[in-house]
Here is the input.
Amino acid sequence: MPIHLHAALIEGAPALWASADVSRKASTATTPAFGVDAKKLRDVVSRLDLAEFAAPLTVTAATAWLPTRAGAVVAPQADAAKARLHPWRVRVAVMTGPQAVAFFSAVLGREVIADDTHIGPDVSALGRVLRLAFELVAGQQFLPAVQAVAHEPLARAVWQPLLGAAERRACDDVASGLPAVIGAFSLDTAARAPDYDPRRALDTALTFFVDAIVRGAQTEPRRPAARAASLQARWLAALHAPDSTFAATSAEYAELSGAIAAWQRPVREEREAAYRLCLRVEEPGTDADTAPARDEAERWHVAYLLQSRIDPSLLIDAAEAMRSAALRREYLTTLGRAAPFSRWIDESLARDAGAPAGFALDTAAAFAFLQTDAPQCAAADIGVILPSWWLGMDAKARIGVRAAMKRPKFTGANALHAGSLLEVDWTIALGDETLTARELARLARLKTPLVRIRGRWIHVDPAELKAALAHVAKTKRRTLTVAEALRIAVGAPVNGIPAGTTLAATGSVAEHLSRLRGETRLEPIAPPAGLQATLRPYQSRGYAWLNFLTRSGFGACLADDMGLGKTIQTLALITRDWEAKAAAPVLLVCPTSVIGNWQREAERFAPGLPVHVHHGADRARGAAFTKSAQRAALVLTGYALLHRDRALFERVEWRGMVLDEAQNVKNPDSAQARAARSIAAGYRVALTGTPVENHVGDMWSLMEFLNPGMLGTLTEFRREFFVPIQVQGNPQATERLRSITGPFVLRRLKSDASIISDLPAKQEYTVTCTLTREQATLYAAVLRDFDKDLDATDGMKRRGMILATLSKLKQICNHPAQFAGDNSALPGRSGKLARLEEMLEEVLDVGEAALVFTQFAEMGELIRRRLEQRFGHEVPFLHGGVAKTARDTMVEDFSGGTGPAVFILSLKAGGSGLNLTRANHVFHFDRWWNPAVENQATDRAFRIGQTKAVQVHKFVCGGTLEEKIALLIARKAAISERVVGSGEGWLTELSSSQLRELVALSAEAVAE
Amino acid sequence: MSRRGWDGEYPPRAKPRRAADGIKAQTKRGAFGSGWWAKRWIGVLEGFSLGARLTRGRSYARSGQVIQIALETGGVRAVVQGSRAKPYDVTIRMRELGSAQWRAVGAAITNNVRLAAALLAGEMPEDIETAFATAGVTLFPASAKELKTACSCPDWSNPCKHLAAVFYLVGEEFDRDPFLLFVVRGLAREAVRDLFAAPTAADASETAAAEVPARRARSVPLAADAFWGNAVRAAGSESRLRAPAPSDAAILKRAGRFPFWRDAVPLEEAVAPIYRDAANAALEWLADQADRG
Here is the structure.
């Protein structure tokens, strides 16, 4: 039975309650009970597994006024006509600040939070208030204040949100989405329903969250002040302490709150105004090169503008502002506020008594203004628009060290190796133009570090210029390795070279660089002889790219869309190396569930490659491992073992290391990420189907594996890239990150025009999954019984026994919980389910949609539960028991794109008739052994109206009957239609030995 | 402290009782208050030639002997802890300006854009006195006659050191909020703006157009969408504020000093680390949420 978790505000704090089913049967009690009891509520909250809820929840009874009709609560889906508000007793858990922040953070953006645990829209609505609170705190939009505590000689110190015009608008937006149920609760048995005031509810929740966030962020909480301390000292202490209350008589409260109001007044008035002043610095025209005045004598101008706080792009110039009486007042007010922050503003007011519009500056004064006044004004919440070169945004206007290659010794791309040394000259350049000695001399003489050089204004930071000159004069380095030169070129840090150094590349290095940046196409290379496949043109390019980067000493991330053949491109690279010199092996790490898949793909496409699989309990260790590994071209292992057998791996010399599904190392602190970074290898490759560029946070870990140090330390990365890009949408940081990482990531989309022409409209893949240990054990036990009974039965009984056994084995391959038919936990017990989750994650990540077919209704239910839990959203499951109207809604929601992008269908109920072309992925979780039935199901997506290429993923467990039957059918494709048309009946006609062989379990089927 | 000279105290000086948590002057040494108006105010006090009582008053103000202080229209009332158990009551009354006089001052301000801008912004420009002069009045008491002072202490010299202590603290308070000068001169704070920037007819109509309908508590909506919020999630409207880069508790600098602060460390300094910690934590949270999808 699904549980719904709800939230409400009770006496200023968020509280949780839960209902098993909102439509309850009628009750005649005056205040009937509703919702789950205390034990169940604690149980539901514990499913979230949050540290803040470690101590048992305090659950109390509250009164909730809910829409009621005929003695029963009207369900959220039902029509509320003729309903009236009626009090109900509901068990609630009122949360503390840290609990509420942790809870709403954890559930933000989710509908399902745990196995069959859904959250109500009321929770989502309060989650949005939490986000707003974090936005306010991030912008330091809060002030300390005081609140009265009723009936007690106490007061509460609170951190209160400070709302300006823009914030108010955001608040109105969020308030309009607060459902009334949030305000329907009270702890006392009120005689009437509480009023509905969404704006007040929002203010309450916002203040609660802002206070909780600010308190929670304190790195060193103070001890509360002694009782005898002054009122202000008690208040100040309570602002720091986890406990916000402090002793205060009502007179003291009145005194303090009056003083606080007086103190806050100026800043409140300012923030609440509709406009603020904005200063725009205008540089002297650069087109005046006909008769350039001396730089020092140029006229700079600072213009006054009125800037809307709600829409900062709305700027009103002074003349217009002075025309309207209301704007004039706003304008003068903002000027008056700004005057103390810059003497030029103050002077302009005195000078232009009628209509001040700005002021003029000579170059020295302009520098002083930019340097001192502008930051002060910006800090005082005055808008400041500065030239881009001043802000250091314009790379062409930056002065720095430039490494100019002296003699390009190398010719031809192949002569170039990562470690090859290049001779360089160090010069000083403006952007990428080297400055002359005369220009440098002029820079050194500057009194004001603003200068016009080569037709553009630049800011010369004397310290930076000095450092650059010092490097050029003193460095003894006259060489760079090719790898260092290329790192400089993409803007990555290099030891001993000043930051911001540029590279003037010539000859083959320039060519190399241009290839690295993707400006020049790579020359195609012939596929290795041993590759039993024809590479599509884009695969050929990917293969050449991998080869180029790994040769240049860089790690490469191949991030092609799922289905574009990352496996075959990687196998081509490994085979090429192996054919050139059969020396060291490549270590390939993948999720356990796909080890079998890699093994089969290698056998199929590169049968000449010796592969060693390192997994399972009986895997080789010690010298035995080293010996087999050294003989192999490819060693396959899983992420869990990467960490556990790290010492073993470190003993082998690896030609290369490949991480498949590299999102597994996205958390840089995880054991597998650490292990992946620590193992030495000749080159590094990462494979992933997720759009890496959309996951800025994961980029550091990925790059640290591929090209260590390129993005600085994790702390530097978070400060310089992660926070600016994610929170402030900083375009310079985004561009710099792209520039540094771009050359090492290759991502092609199925929708790319150049790819689409290469792809067939429908592609079918067999996805070989690995059994878990539990699955293998169950499988073996069923086999033992089967072995025993097979010869002891005959006739109808034998046929029945065979079909029952086949069914059991298929259930085990699906999931042990399906076989057991219990309601046990789902994660980590089925190779297929793990693989489905991984593949769906990629599908959803790129915004595509999928159908999942199973022939078992029970399995469909298990998949639904697990996917909802994993992705946090409801997932529809269409089976025979779904009523016609519900069925139509599911199909409509899916097709209309409003519902979730995954649709589970039972083969029988959903295998025909429907049009579900939103999906371009079809998963067959288990097999019907009848291509016609499977194709018919596939055609739900692959039919008229489908605009994308469709990928069909057929799951089989490697080494089990599933794989053997699939092979059998493939071999007898011609007869399959006729023979297997009726399902699995034909299997009962096989001889005992054929049957034994069919169902036997191969050793390699078992995962760790 | 100097013992030289006659300090006007009789009987021989007794040490004042320590007052717990009195208001402590924020100016540790040198002149009280940094604004010109504070200096002018203290100048009025110093014009009374109090001799050593000034020094004593200053030390009273610094050591927190003033327990309570209230500024109101037309004057100041305060309670000061002296050497006796019962604290003394101190009052300062000032001659209030009449409404015609205030109107004349307002007209003079309106004709000067700089004055108007500063006052609208809550700043007190130094040449405000020119506007008062134009109107034929003064902002500060021109002579002792315009000021009535009283203290319940046994000291027969008026003004006494208790009054001096209050004077100093009021000076500091003017420093924080110079508009209190107008208040003690008889003009309510709310009336200050209307004094010189009285809304025109055009303003009034603009304001009316922008008027937000008053918020009223509504009856609880019973329709499922509004009560349970089903429609909300479907709409999924996300309003995002662009978080600016925090600039080190700028908001506190804007708020200025807390009135009659009693701690040695100013409030803005005491809570600045909280602003930094909170903003950093919130930025990290927002970045992580954005990354989560």
Q: What stands out?
A: Chain A touches chain B through 118 residues (CB under 8 Å). The mean pLDDT of chain A is 85.
